[in-house]
C-alpha cells in the first residue's frame, strides 16, 4: 500500500516539474491543485487532473494590467500625440527616402514663400485679364457717334482751365501767332471764348447728327425700292406646284401646346371646419342685422351716408389718392346735395392760376409736354366718369325718379321695404330647448322654408363655436324625429316636408352618430314595448302607423343594414319580423302597411342576402287573401293569416270585369293612413294594385335568393299557389306577364339532396406501448435523434458554455477594476495623511522654536 501511494505521489510531482510553470512554482507544492477522481475509466485520457491556479491567476492579472487597466487609465482622456511627418507610418519607404522627400517638400514651401513678392521682369502683371503695360499706354480709341456719349467728353482747353489751374489759358502765346494773340487777355475774355467754342462744337455735332439721320432715311428709301428686286416672292397661284411643308409630328405639337398652357398658380389655404363655421355664422349675423335695420327703416339713411364714389378705372386693390376730395352725388329732400361746390371751384381756379404763373418761367418744350400731360389726365378722368355713368346709369335714373317723387310716396316705399324685411325669414335662430320650441319654430312655414330655418340654426350653433352647442344639436336630432313622426300621422300626412327634412337629419347623424343611435334605439324600443303590451291586453296588435314606417326608412338611410350585428339595424330587423308575424291584417290599409314593411325588409337584406322567412310567409299570406277557393290548398299559411274566416277575402275582386280598365300606377304612402277609394270599381282597382305590388316583391325575392341551395324548397308553396289557386285569368295583362316570369324563375320540382351523414374519417388506431429508442452519446447526455437536433443541441451547449465563461470573465474584470480603484483611493489617502503629518510636524517645530524664543526673552 505504501508502495502504491509513493508511486502515485511521484507521478504527480513529475507532472508538476515537467509543466511550463515558473521555477519557483514548480518547486512549491502548495501551488499545485490535484483534481482527484472517484474512479478511473479505461481508455480515457484526463487533461485537467493537475492544475496551477496561481500561475493562471497571475497571468490573468498581468494581462488585465496590460489591457484593461490601461484602457481604464485613458478613459475620458482624448490627448494624443500623432506624428504627421511625411511617410512616418509608411513601412515601404526606407529612412533615407523619407528624409529626401521631407527635404524636397520643405524646399518647395520655402520657394513658394520667396516668390510671393518677387517681381521678375519675365512675368506679366494683369488686371481683370488685361496687361498693366498695355493699360499704361492709354491707346484706347473711343469711337461713338451718339450724342449721349459725346456729352460726357471734355475739350482740352476746358480740362486745362478747370483742372490745370488756368495755366493753359493764361499762358503767353508763341512768337509765331497773330498780333492779336500777342496781346494779353483777361480771364473774362478767355472764359467767353471758351463758351463760344463749346457752343460751336455742340452746333457742329448737331449738324453732323442731322446729316447722318438724313442719309439714313435716304438709304432706307433706296433700300425699299430695290428690295423687291433682291427677294422675289412667288404668288400663291404659282405655289401650288411646290412641295408642301412637312407636318409637325405629335410630339412637337404636344410640346408647343404645353408651352402655351397656363402655369400653375398658388391656391389659397384650405380653411378648417371651425373657420368655415365661424365665417358662416358671421355672415348670417350680418345679414340679420341688415334685415333688422331695413325693418326699422334705418338702412336707407346709412346707405346714403356710407356710399362712396368708385371710378371705372378702379382696380379694387385698396389704393386711394391722398387728394381725392370728390363729393358723392346724393339727394336730400328731393334736391341735390351740392354743399361746398362753390368753394371747390374757387380753390381750383386759384390752383390753376398758380400753375400758369409757374409755367411761364419754363422753356417752350417743357410747357408743351406739361400741357399734353394735363390734357391726357383730364381726358382719362372724363372717360372714367363717363364709364362709371354708363355702368351705373340705371341706378342713377332710379335715384332721379325717387328724387322727383313727393315725400308721401317715399314714405309708402319705405313702409313697403319694412314690410318686406318683416316678412323675410330671419337669418339667425335660437336652438330649441324642447319639442314645443321646435314645433313653434317650424310651424306655419313651407317645407323649403323649414329646411332653410334648420340650416341656419345648424350654422349658428355649430359645435366648434361654443361649448354647449353640441348638447343642443344632439337634442335637436331627437326633436326632429318626433316632428317627422307628427307630420306622418297628420290627416293627410305631410310627406313632402318629411322628404325635405331628411338631409338635415342625415347631417346631424353624421355629426353625432352616438346620439342618433341612442335616439333611434329609444323610439324602436318604445314602439316594440307598446306592441307587446297591446298583444298581452287584446291578444292582437294593429299594424304600425305611418310614423314608424317613416322611422324605419330613415334608419335604413342613416345606418348600414348589411352588418351582421348592428345596435340600430338589428332591433329594426326584430321589429319588422315581429310586426309581420303578430300584427293582424283586417283592412286594405293594413295590407298596404304590410307591403311597405315587406319593401323595407327586402331593402334591408338586399346587400347581405340574408334569408328573411317572415317576409316570404307574409307575401304568401297576402297572395292567399286573393284566392277565392280556399279548400284543398297545397300550401300552409302561418300567423297572422288564417286559411278561412273573417277578413280572408280582402284581395278577392268583386267584379272581375274591372281588370280591363285598370292601369298600373304606384301606390301612395298616404293610402297606408287612409284608402281614398270609395266606389267598388276604385276599390277593385286598388286591390289589383296591391296584388301587382305583392307579385313584384315575390319576383325580387326570387332574384335575390336564387343562389341558395334550398331556393326551390323555400318557394315551392308560392309556386303551388300561383300555379293552381290564383285566378290569374281574370287579371290584366301586366299581372299575367309578371305571374309567368315568377313561375319561370321557380323550378317545378326541387332538386333531390342526399341525406346528411357524418363525414367519414379514417379510424384512429390505439396507442401502442412500443419503447422509444433514443441514441445516447457523450456519456449519458441526450443529443437528439436526427442530425439537425444533434447540431442544435451541440450549439446550444456551446452557447451556454461560452455565456457562462463570458459572465465569469466580466465578474473578474469588475473585481479587478474595483480592486484598482480601491488601491487608488488608498494611495491618495495615504499621500494625504503623509502630507498632513508633515504639516503638523513643521507647525510643531515652529511652535517649539517660538516658545523657546519667548522663554529666552523672558530671561
Keywords:
859 residues, mainly alpha, two-stranded antiparallel ribbon, 8 strands, extended, rRNA processing, ribosome biogenesis
Summarize the structure.
The chain has 32 helices and 8 strands.
Explain this structure.
This protein is mostly helical and 859 residues long. Among the domains are: 425-511; 512-745, no CATH class. Helices cover 60% and strands 2% of the residues. It has helices at residues 2-18, 23-27, 53-66, 68-73, 95-114, 132-137, 147-150, 156-163, 167-170, 179-182, 187-230, 250-260, 273-296, 299-306, 341-360, 364-391, 393-404, 407-423, 435-442, 447-460, 469-488, 495-511, 513-538, 546-558, 569-582, 588-604, 613-625, 680-704, 711-714, 716-725, 733-745, 787-858, and strands at 33-34, 50-51, 126-127, 130-131, 331-332, 335-336, 776-777, 781-782. The strands form four sheets. A two-stranded antiparallel sheet has the order 1-2. The longest helix is centred in the last third of the chain and has 72 residues, at 787-858. It starts with a helix and ends with a helix.
